[in-house]
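Researcher: Please translate sequence to structure tokens.
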Amino acid sequence: MSFVEYGDTIKDGDTAIVFLGHESMFPVKVQHGSVTQTKYGVIRHSTDLIGKKYGSKVTCSKGGWVFILHPTPELWTMNLPHRTQILYSTDISIITMMLELKPGSIVCESGTGSGSLSHALIRTVAPTGHLYTVEFHQQRAEKAREEFREHGVEHLVTVTNQDVCKNGFGVSNIADAVFLDIPSPWEAIGHAKSALKAEGGRICSFSPCIEQVQRTCLAMEEYGFTEINTLEILLRVYNVRTVSLQIPDLGKAAEDNSSTGFDSSNPSHQESPCANLQQGTVQFKSGVPLREVVGHTGYLTFATKSLV
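Model: Translation complete:
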């Protein structure tokens, strides 16, 4: 199993995603002889998982069933163990595009955190690219190395435990892009410029506060970066549902009643307007925004290394 090389069959040692529903899923490490408890009952790894195809529908001991999915960076983002706050797919997608990443790209990242963005970057630059990720916290760095090894991508990433603001990324003039997600990104702009290729490259800084953005932009200008711009991504989700509306009465019904000799005093005619109201409706699909919208996550500041 690898996050960048998809396999068909579940094997011992794989990381799989147990899918109970769109709002309920979790990762599990497949091990011979192990069991996993769900609200639908027990999943026995030896008989229910190992040897089955990814995407299989597995029946649990209580009669309920789940799907077993192959892990992807998107699924891992939704299910990973949180060691820090993470970036989600909305921001990750724009970062990948604006940094102009592709297979073969060399990327420097700090900090590693829970590895949400790291997995997406690794898949993007595979199979010939490489990610150099720096994490200040030693335990988080060790956990990241362990996860990359379990996920079959350790050959595509180098994890370094050091302070990027003081010691940089440990590489020079090789990176196509640099990403910063640290408390004081302005202190690492000089090291980011040194890591980027001499012929130029792109940089992105993620900061939750606008004061951080201001200081980062000033540092970028000081080090000669150009095309500096900051943006914020807000996701608005719509529910599609069926709406019934009454067809408006523009007077035609009244004219029809008078022309046909409609008698309101006749009991048999008194029910007909209600019947017409029931029949005079139309159904159509409509998009309705959710009442609660996910708000601010952070500001993304992009810039280009100048060739001058």
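Researcher: Any highlights?
Model: The mean pLDDT is 90.
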